[in-house]
Amino acid sequence: MSVQGSDAEVAILGLEVFGRHGVFPAERELGQRFIVDLVVDLDLAPATVSDRLEDTVDYAGLADAVAEIVGGEPFALLERLAQVIAERVLDEPHASGVAVTVHKPHVAIPHTVAESRVTVRRRRGRAG
User: Fold this and answer.
1) What is the dihedral of CA 79, 60, 88, 125, to 10 degrees?
2) Is-above-0.85 flag for pTM?
């Protein structure tokens, strides 16, 4: 049986990382927990036939790379953080698109909210 190209997705959900992102100096000074969800679009047909890691996305390696971004250089905006993560995901040779959601459970606003979050969706070869 031959398998033609198949649109599919791989998801990494609930990746928790301590980071220092935010507009206010205290957010960068104290830091806080961020949660990242990734939904990566790719053609899984080669991996379903070969059963080889090289034919898909290495979830552990990708989680490590995202954790390094979130735990690294601070950004003022979640939008920028999500964009940098999306760019890294699209460096994966099998990834054709990604939706990145960055959750900030402890948002610094004078209202009670469960969280703030930003989602960016990117496709290979397209910005915006």
Assistant:
1) -110
2) yes
The whole-angstrom separation of Cα 102 and Cα 79 is: 8
Is 22 in contact with 2 (CB distance < 8 Å)? Answer: no
Please report the domains of the chain, with CATH numbers, ordered by start residue.
7-123 (3.30.1130.10)
Give catalytic residues, as residue numbers: 104
CA angle 26, 71, 37 (to 5 degrees): 105
pLDDT, tens only, 18-40: 999 999 999 999 999 999 999 99
The CA R_g of the chain, rounded to the nearest whole Å, is 16
Counting beta carbons within 10 angstroms of the beta carbon of residue 91, is it exposed (0 to 12), middle (13 to 18) or buried (19 or more)?
A: exposed
Contact yes or no for 81/21 (Cβ under 8 A):
yes
